[in-house]
Task: inverse folding
């Protein structure tokens, strides 16, 4: 079945949860008003459904293939990419001085979600280009910017990120690739990289690799890593393409999902060294990477939302179509009903919907905070927004990708036996979703980042501010006296209380028992997400309800609060009293 | 990496959780003592590791293929099956009068777990044969038994179950296949069946299909369904094979997992009708199916345990091998540590282990109850054991297969990027596990069966008995005063309290609001599993602990109680106060 972008919920989430209306009212998005937002979303929705979505299954079946060093993407892939770039979508968030449209991250996020719902493996390539543009824009020399940025922004060329090596995955300390200065301002790059997404392909004329490597005599560890730009084809002074650089794709992986996205092993310097240019300062490569890390993590969060939305739509359509059994209140001898009448099927669909929209709420809130951190005229406000972005980013990344897997798996379940058949398409969503909890920092690493680096920001004031906002929402729900909310107020209050206590425990324990803090990091992140997502859905329901009529937003907020957010007290226990159980693992694994 | 059967935990679970020691002491297993049990387990473990396990990846890569009506299983498949059957493993549980060994279901269950850990898609075929043997033994005529049983028991022939049709999946009312009496005691069978596991293959000379079909003028609905035996090759009076029957495999499915298990579309009667023989009485086919349904569901539960165990072993081995980062207490500049030192990795592995062993505990308890329901001399005790089997079977099936998916998914996560690469083998476990929540009655249907048909047994006394047993275990844990239990007693008490209240609510509501009961069925089943599994692990830890030393069993029971069973109160709320949120789905899906 085809994908239809949920423009209504996307716009409602942007406006009422992420605060687009306030951004506009504050004058922070002069290039954008409500009407233009709607128009962009409608156009993106159309392109996603009409052009990209039909490629999803084709891409899965054909995959990308490697032969004699050449990677061929699936049929229609290149044409769709070219049309997409020519329509200007690649340039949406890019800086205006390099041909971009400079539109807010919030709008870009909505579009990113749509591309990824339409075809996850397709949309992944351009996400890497976004990262390359950001790194280059923030840290590249004028020469590099002039040579590469316009082509990357237009989408004529694509960018990649070359971090991982066989011995250096989550731990970049172990990185071994080398860069030797030639003396003319260039470097000779040698080394082996693995898991390089779109490391080689036939979609663009040139590919701009960003490569982490060590200079001779660089300090050990991550303080000795530098970032280099290494193009597939060298670029002549007139901008035309010159020689093929000394790099090649030495293999592509056979993966569980995202078959169309070529995951490449890259060999740099077989013939003496690929020519590269330093980005930013020597030995400061990791800092350059961190510039774009938060944004990349937001994009992966959006992939989680996207695949969940696609799986939800497919399961819903199946449940409305497939007939088995009869409704409880059907007269005897009635014909079979669509399975959506069965309470357990409804429960599954509501769970899929509630998780998806909660993840969307959190991810879009990150995007808004990112915009505010860049656009607020007041420095203190920019800093506050930056800290808000910093805290919510790992939560969005881990929660949205976790629920991406869960929702895709439940989607298979709704389909029954048909879900297990590849032709149905439900299984592909699970296979595709499964990467997003791993790459761009595993979800375990997101949780560690949250508790060790983010909670202490501004002495805990940043997280306190977020919790205070949640309390405001709870207060509004309780004051609203809207029957459709059911027990939403009480359940969310319990969740926020649990989060606050767990946060205090984390902040009090971080200095004395880091092992205990790390043992509880993952349940803590989930607890945070339940409170943040649950209040996000409630915020939307408060804004969209009318009179006393039940609405989809009310029902979704209620389901999340009453059925999902009720796990909060258990997660609090796992945080504050669970470290002993994790530590006892020693008794198990020593045996 | 290879599979090594966890014989120690299997035996401890059989003895201390499922009560093998009591079975033996009560004289109910005269053919089996403790030493012989250990000997059988050791032999099975050896066969599983040495012969079957190496086929797992081969089977996944090659799959079974269909060409010109012939299904070819992967290389080595037939030879391994033949060796397995010749070693007597197929005959283990079968009746002695037909060449079986008549060993208890509990022992058979342990072996079934091992075969499925070794290669899920391989072990699935013989499970269908077990069902065919049971149906034939219980309901077949003497002629059918004489002709088919010995060959099915020896494994020379395999059996299948032909239930599903395109329009009749979970709802067998809609079944359309026909059976016309010929007048000579045989029937002409016509119809299309789908999703027939091992419906056609090259592993045995003959295949004995059990087929549900309707007689002319049979009543509508499930009361008009009869069961027929329809062999692939007709059998001559001397037992030799005769003509090919009028049936064929018209297609095999391209599936997410269990690639080596051929999932066939079967066409019966293209040339006028396949010759079949009635099993049991006319129009009582469903009752015949139900004879074996509980046992089949137990076997699928064991598949869930099996795949979880395999995924756990693989993730554990990886975590002990793969080096990234350093331990918290490592000196500065220390070399990288195996990732198992990291608390979040330990948390994941402990969760995998605790879920797997809890599921094993529940499944083995079902097997023991099944044995008691067959072997107790006292009728009242047989009935009590049968009711216990009836209640625990859907819980075992749904919980074990749900955690099978979860554990396999977490196994991928532990592997990081390597987990997404098919060559690693971790992804196959998730793909294979994903079917078990669906077939043999979806897990939603298990939950409905539990609350509508099983809870009311003996006016609620059967379930009350199980809860009372859990309370005894909680009391023992609290009295034990063993530091390694941590807060296990308090957490399990809270879980059992929640289960008891939810059960009372279910029994009180079932007559007045079936919609509310069905809306809470799935969370209720999970709540039951947490209490049953948690007390099962505690039982084992109580039995195996020695002095004050920490043990693996104590740590596992503690982790389950403190980190997983703490969800119980939330599940209680979903049962007793969640129906409104599910009912509100109407506001969403009507829109």
Result:
């Amino acid at each position: 079945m085809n994908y239809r972008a949920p423009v209504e919920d996307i716009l409602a989430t942007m406006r009422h949860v992420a605060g687009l209306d306030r951004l506009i009212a504050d004058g922070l998005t002069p290039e954008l008003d409500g009407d233009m937002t709607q128009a962009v979303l409608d156009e993106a929705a159309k392109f996603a459904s009409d052009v990209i979505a039909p490629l999803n299954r084709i891409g899965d079946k054909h995959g990308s293939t490697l032969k004699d060093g050449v990677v061929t993407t699936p049929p229609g892939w290149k044409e769709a990419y070219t049309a997409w770039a020519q329509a200007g979508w690649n340039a949406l968030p890019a800086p205006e001085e390099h041909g971009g449209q400079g539109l807010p991250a919030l709008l870009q996020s909505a579009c990113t979600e749509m591309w990824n719902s339409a075809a996850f493996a397709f949309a992944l390539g351009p996400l890497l280009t976004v990262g390359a543009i950001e790194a280059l824009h923030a840290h590249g020399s004028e020469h590099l910017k002039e040579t590469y940025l316009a082509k990357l922004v237009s989408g004529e060329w694509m960018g990649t990120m070359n971090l991982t090596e066989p011995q250096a995955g989550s731990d970049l300390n172990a990185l071994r690739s080398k860069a030797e200065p030639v003396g003319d301002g260039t470097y000779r790059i040698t080394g082996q990289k693995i898991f390089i997404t779109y490391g080689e392909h036939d979609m663009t004329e040139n590919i701009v690799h960003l490569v982490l490597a060590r200079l001779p005599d660089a300090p050990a560890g991550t303080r000795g890593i530098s970032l280099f730009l290494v193009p597939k084809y060298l670029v002549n002074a007139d901008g035309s393409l010159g020689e093929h650089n000394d790099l090649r794709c030495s293999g592509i992986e056979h993966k569980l999902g995202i078959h169309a996205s070529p995951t490449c092993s890259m060999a740099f310097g077989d013939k003496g060294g690929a020519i590269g240019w330093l980005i930013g300062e020597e030995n400061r490569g990791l800092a350059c990477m961190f510039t774009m890390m938060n944004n990349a993590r937001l994009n992966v969060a959006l992939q989680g939302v996207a695949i969940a939305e696609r799986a939800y739509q497919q399961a819903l359509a199946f449940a409305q179509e497939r007939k088995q059994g009869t409704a409880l209140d059907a007269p005897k001898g009635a014909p079979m009903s669509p399975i959506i009448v069965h309470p357990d099927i409804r429960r599954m669909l509501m769970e899929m919907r509630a998780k998806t929209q909660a993840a969307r709420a959190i991810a879009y809130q990150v995007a808004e905070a990112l915009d505010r951190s860049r656009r607020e005229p007041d420095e203190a406000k920019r800093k506050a927004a930056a800290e808000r972005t910093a805290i919510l980013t790992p939560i969005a990344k881990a929660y949205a990708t976790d629920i991406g897997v869960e929702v895709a798996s439940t989607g298979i379940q709704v389909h029954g036996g048909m879900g297990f058949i590849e032709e149905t398409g439900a299984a592909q969503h699970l296979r595709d979703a499964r990467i997003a909890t791993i790459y761009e920092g595993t979800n375990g690493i997101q949780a560690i980042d949250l508790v060790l680096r983010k909670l202490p920001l501004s002495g805990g004031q940043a997280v306190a501010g977020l919790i205070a906002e949640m309390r405001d929402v709870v207060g509004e729900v309780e004051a609203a006296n809207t029957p459709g909310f059911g027990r939403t107020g009480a359940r969310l209050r319990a969740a926020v209380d649990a989060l606050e206590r767990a946060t205090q425990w984390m902040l009090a324990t971080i200095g004395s028992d880091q092992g205990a803090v790390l043992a509880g990091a993952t349940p803590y992140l989930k607890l945070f997400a339940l409170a943040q997502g649950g209040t996000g859905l409630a915020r939307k329901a408060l804004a969209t309800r009318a009179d006393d009529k039940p609405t989809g937003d009310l029902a979704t907020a209620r389901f999340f609060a009453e059925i999902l957010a009720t796990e909060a007290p258990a997660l609090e226990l796992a945080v504050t009293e669970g470290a002993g159980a994790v530590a006892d693992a020693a008794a198990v694994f020593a045996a």
